[in-house]
Design brief:
Chain lengths: 402, 721
């Protein structure tokens, strides 16, 4: 490895094909291809286009020549790949994997590593900045009804200067204020509106177009290095001549920071609204959402989707618990209380539970409200590579190690 | 290196038609994941959607044909089994085509169903082909055809989100069609008022704004009284009635005697509540009716259905978003089974057997390569009639494609006797179901996830399925099995040979004008296409009856209907009225009891009984009791609850060890739709002399489970007859 890898770069692929299909210089695709070719990893977990750009599908790529199917972005990438890695790849026990991560993917993967469900040494987190994701079907409806465009014609969506902009193949651009859209129940997923990690500083590398200005604007990616592992990978890719790098423009760095700060401020405002009216204490929150929970049809969807719900033998399904009797709907409130005590100390607000709830219960909001209280009381911030005590999972010991 | 892919598919349980993604690892289905791009359910599913795949790779899948000899099954080669079936079908249908019958499978893709009815009609020359819609939404097909000219749901599912007022009667969709239930929740969030009418305080009733409990089987009296109030108050839509309908005066005359007092007496609903329901429904800008089997599964099911149609036409609540008559179809593809002509009176696309020109068209279309088809213009036997004919010795061969009538038809004893009486029962199945156990020949078939094809949901949305894994070795595609049988019966292979399911679909398009415009490119998308879809440039949107109804003159027809009530009424000996229902976690059992998570949730059946009725009999919650009717008796755990009306008891129909249909009545026919009365029969419940437990093994390892009450034979005992 060459020495002196800087913390930040403008970067773009040296491969013309990748540059053409990938976004902003195709650096993620180039890195992934390199990791496969060099044998650094056995497989890459990414997202490919299913039926169309609104249909993001997780995919496992093991051959470098197949990497192109993960290139480019998907309109509505609402997946959480942590569960995919844990559930279908056995937590990469027997294989080395690189995952393209939004901040919430990275957060949940970090939590699963701490719990021994994903083997940290076997996983590389290639992070991508994320200002929030859009739910596919409501977004298509919004494009039809509000933007008056055919969803098929939209090639790109972007949040810029407070507007959600849709761009069509023939270059037409239409934008509406994201705050107004979201007030009317459209726009980003609710959890994304609350999210306070936009640049995945918990991944090995974080990539994104924010702050790329000057001659490379639109053609390069802003790369930030967060770990030694990330530094090593980046050095190797540069050394191999696969990507070109440039020093970032100072003003660009500032712009990136401003974008991030603006979004974090918005997220805080959303949280203030969402957490209002409750102390955040469990009983108080449960009482507040009593009526919402009374709709629960006990589909177990939240359990299935929650990346932090990972017991092989779930106690909610066991013969024992007569406090959540089998076959009764709506499910006893204990169903959610039980699930909550198992995951809420580390809830990353990834939103998967709300995405799958057939009863329109704002579950992610509820857990996020309680988790916020946990953060206040215990100071534990889920989703980062730290040795901090996980509040309800571990005890502290005051014994002095001499 | 491991290979993982997602294969989008459609859930095989209820008629909502939710999309799911199969997770396929190294060629085997190992799970499902949300399909958020799917327009119907947006990645959300019910428990069956989450766990209903678990049966697929179970060890007890059938993989070898079985032939029964001296009461025992032995394994047989495909050649032997196919020859045996083909020879018998040929022998009997040559003698008299009316002596063979076919049940098509409403859970199977359209292409399989189409080939089933083709095998019946083309190879055997019989019109005796039907399926379980007969005892589910048969009255919808008949009732809405009489009134609107088309027997299907009038609006798409999403339409309900635009309603201002939802009149939901006899539909517990939060359990039976859960992702439609979600759309009602969304409608409420949009400001709609939801009113649920049901003898039980169901999970659906619990999310309502208003709940009205009423007596089982009194729907016509209720709706006639509502119609009278609406007319008396002048709230009817005169313009709609004048320009779009006929028969109003006759109906108006009949409803005159249904005043509030009389209706209240019959239904058990307070007069002022009936009045309020009528006024609220008629005054809403957009009012939608939602119903399901609570309306249809009666001996007057078609009348109930037509009452809902009367209400909608009276108030002009049809042909617009947010309105309509919205029957929620049962199985994933029961709509398709009707569309495909698995009906003794209809060919594919609801073309009529009775019409000589149509039958001549099909005779001509299906003949060729030196083979002559000569179908009669007399409709064949319905499902219930076939079973009765078998019982009487008038039907000799019954070919059951994937249905389980021993569990699902009324009066299990009667069904078993009828099947016993056949010269040959052929069952084409994935598992050795209770019906398959009665068979002479069992043919192992490919199942869900293992084939291409299409399902048609309750909103007439025809959706493509894709193969996610190979069937287990030895199990064949249904249409391939039937091709081989037809050929062995002497039909030229050219008439039954297809290279793919898609090729079968192309034939369906040629025969069914309502599906003629369904080209593959538009069909194989998440949005798919709704019928009617007459041409490739038709938008094929779900809303029907916008300008005209589907009758030749374009007019909707009011029907004058009288209240009849259940055929079997309660008396001193059998003082409780039994209704049969479904629960969220199971679907006709054979598949769902083989799904570990669903089976963990609910392992066996129960009888819901009102707290007061239980108290009077000294019954406590959870104890195993004896339930008996004029047909038979079962031992079953009691679920004591205030959620059911006094005098009414309820048994979910899924569980063979305490099968509701041991008790139900197969003699009580709806003359208009041939429905049997599955929602009402007189029974009694009593405490058992000594404590019994339902003993069962949990499905954990693919071995069979037997749950039954100790020392209690549950399906064979006859009492009181």
């Amino acid at each position: 490895m060459s020495a002196n890898i800087e913390k930040m770069y403008y970067a773009y692929s040296a491969n013309e094909d990748i540059k053409a299909k990938g976004e902003y210089g195709g650096v993620v695709t180039t890195i992934m291809k390199y990791l496969l070719e060099s044998g650094t990893v056995d497989a890459v977990v990414g997202v490919e286009e299913g039926h169309d750009l609104y249909d993001g599908v997780p995919c496992l790529v093991t051959e470098p020549e197949d990497i192109m199917k993960t290139a480019g972005s998907i309109h509505c990438g609402t997946l959480n790949l942590a569960k995919f890695v844990y559930k279908y790849l056995d937590g990469c026990r027997d294989m080395k994997v690189a995952v393209s991560c939004k901040p919430c993917d990275a957060m949940t993967i970090r939590e699963l590593i701490k719990r021994g469900k994903i083997i940290g040494d076997n996983i590389i987190l290639i992070g991508v900045n994320c200002g929030g994701t859009l739910p596919p079907v409501p977004t298509m409806n919004m494009i039809k009804e509000v933007y008056e465009l055919d969803p098929k014609d939209v090639v790109k969506e972007e949040i810029s200067k407070g507007k959600l902009i849709m761009e069509t193949a023939d270059g037409e651009e239409k934008g509406f204020g994201i705050e107004d859209l979201e007030e009317d129940g459209m726009g980003r997923r609710e959890n994304c509106q609350r999210c306070n990690l936009k640049i995945p500083s918990n991944a090995d590398l974080a990539l994104g177009n924010w702050g790329v200005i000057g001659p490379l604007a639109g053609k390069a990616t802003f790369v930030e290095v967060f770990t030694d592992k990330g530094s090593e990978i980046l050095a190797d890719v540069i050394d191999a001549g696969l990507i070109e790098v440039d020093e970032p423009i100072e003003k660009g760095i500032k712009i990136r920071e401003n974008i991030n700060n603006f979004m974090l401020k918005q997220a805080q405002a959303k949280k203030d609204v969402d957490y209002a009216g409750t102390t955040g204490d469990i009983i108080d929150v449960f009482h507040m959402y009593d009526e919402e929970f009374s709709k629960c049809m006990k589909c177990y969807g939240c359990r299935e989707a929650c990346p932090l719900c990972f017991c092989e033998d779930c106690c909610l399904e066991a013969e024992g618990p007569e406090w959540v009797p089998g076959g009764y709907t709506p499910a006893a409130p204990f169903f959610h209380l039980t699930r909550m005590v198992h995951m809420v100390d580390a809830c990353t607000n990834c939103g998967q539970c709300s995405d799958v709830c057939p009863c329109e219960i704002p579950v992610a909001k509820v857990w996020s409200t309680v988790n916020n209280k946990v953060r206040e009381v215990y100071g534990y911030i889920p989703g980062f590579d730290s040795d901090d005590r996980i509040p309800f999972t571990e005890h502290i010991s005051k014994a002095k190690k001499l | 290196m491991v290979e993982i892919k997602y294969v989008p598919s459609i859930c095989p349980y209820c008629g909502t038609g939710c999309g799911i993604n199969f997770v396929v690892k190294d060629g085997k289905i190992i799970g499902v994941e949300p399909y958020k791009r799917h327009p119907v359910n947006e990645g959300k599913v019910c428990p069956k959607g989450n766990f209903g795949y678990q049966f697929i790779n179970r060890e007890d899948r059938l993989t070898t044909p079985l032939i029964k000899e001296n009461g025992e099954f032995r394994e047989a080669s495909w050649d032997e089994a196919l020859d045996l079936v083909a020879n018998k079908l040929k022998e009997v249908s040559d003698e008299d085509p009316n002596k063979v019958g076919f049940y098509a499978c409403a859970r199977s893709p359209n292409e399989n169903i189409y080939i089933t009815q083709k095998l019946a009609r083309v190879a055997c020359g019989t019109q005796n082909v039907d399926h379980c819609a007969r005892i589910c939404h048969g009255p919808t097909v008949a009732g809405l055809a009489n009134t609107f000219g088309s027997g299907a749901m009038t609006n798409g599912f999403d339409s309900i989100k635009e309603a201002d007022y939802i009149f939901c009667i006899g539909s517990n969709n939060m359990e039976a069609h859960p992702l439609f239930g979600r759309k009602m929740i969304q409608a409420k969030q949009n400001g709609a008022k939801l009113v649920v009418l049901d003898p039980r305080f169901t999970p659906t009733a619990k999310i309502a704004d208003e709940y009205v409990q009423f007596e089982t089987g009194t729907d016509v009296a209720l709706m006639n009284a509502m119609i009278k109030v609406i007319i008396d108050e002048g709230l009817q839509d005169e313009e709609f009635i004048h320009y779009r309908t006929k028969g109003f005066e006759e109906m108006k005359e009949v409803v005159q005697k249904y005043d509030l007092e009389m209706a209240s007496e019959i239904t058990g609903i307070k007069p002022e509540v009936i009045r309020k329901l009528a006024i609220d429904y008629a005054s809403a800008d957009k009012a939608a009716i939602v119903y399901s089997l609570g309306i249809t599964e009666h001996s007057h099911g078609a009348d109930n259905v037509m009452s809902t149609a009367n209400l909608a036409m009276l108030t002009g609540n049809i042909g617009k978003q947010g309105t309509g008559v919205n029957p929620l179809r049962g199985q994933n593809n029961v709509q398709g089974a009707c569309d495909m002509g698995a009906l003794p009176s209809d060919y594919v696309g609801y073309r009529k057997v009775k019409d000589p020109e149509t039958t001549a068209w099909f005779n001509d279309y299906y003949s060729g390569y030196g083979y002559e088809v000569n179908l009669p213009t007399t409709p064949g036997l319905t499902l219930v009639e076939m079973m009765n004919a078998a019982h009487a010795g008038d039907l000799k061969v019954l070919y059951i494609h994937g249905e389980d009538p021993v569990l699902s038809d009324a009066d299990v004893q009667h069904t078993k006797e009828a099947l016993e009486n056949l010269e040959m029962l052929v069952v084409q199945e994935c598992f050795l179901t209770d019906t398959a156990q009665c068979a002479d020949v069992v043919l192992p078939a490919a199942g869900w996830g293992e084939q291409e094809g299409t399902f048609t949901s309750g909103e007439r949305r025809v959706q493509c399925l894709h193969k996610a894994q190979e069937p287990p070795e030895g199990a064949w595609l249904d249409w391939k099995i039937m091709e081989e049988i037809a050929v062995r019966m002497g039909v030229p292979r050219e008439l039954f040979h297809y290279e793919s399911a898609e090729e079968i679909f192309e034939e369906i398009r040629e025969c069914a004008p309502i599906m003629a415009g369904m080209d593959r490119k538009r069909l194989d998308t998440p949005e798919a296409l709704h019928w009617p879809c007459p041409s490739e440039d038709d938008p094929c949107q779900p809303l029907m009856h916008k300008v005209t109804f589907a009758h030749p003159d374009g007019l909707g027809v009011f029907q004058a209907l009288e209240h009849k009530g259940p055929v079997e009424t309660t008396d001193d000996e059998y003082p409780l009225l039994l209704t049969t229902t479904r629960i969220l976690f199971h679907y006709h059992a054979a598949m769902t009891i083989r799904c570990e998570t669903l089976n963990n949730e609910v392992k066996t059946g129960f009888i819901e009984i009102n707290t007061k009725d239980a108290e009077a009999r000294g019954i406590i919650n959870g104890e195993v009791v004896r339930a008996f009717s004029r047909r038979g008796e079962i031992a079953i755990p009691a679920r004591v609850t205030d959620d059911i009306r006094e005098g009414i008891v309820n048994i979910p129909m899924h569980f063979v060890e305490c099968a509701a249909n041991v008790l139900t009545n197969s003699d009580s026919f709806d003359p208009k739709s041939k429905m049997v009365e599955l929602k009402a029969c007189a029974i009694e419940v009593e405490k058992l002399p000594e404590k019994l437990e339902m003993k069962g093994e949990v499905y954990k390892d693919g071995t069979d489970t037997e749950i039954k009450a100790e020392n209690m034979s549950t399906t064979t005992v006859k009492v009181g007859k």
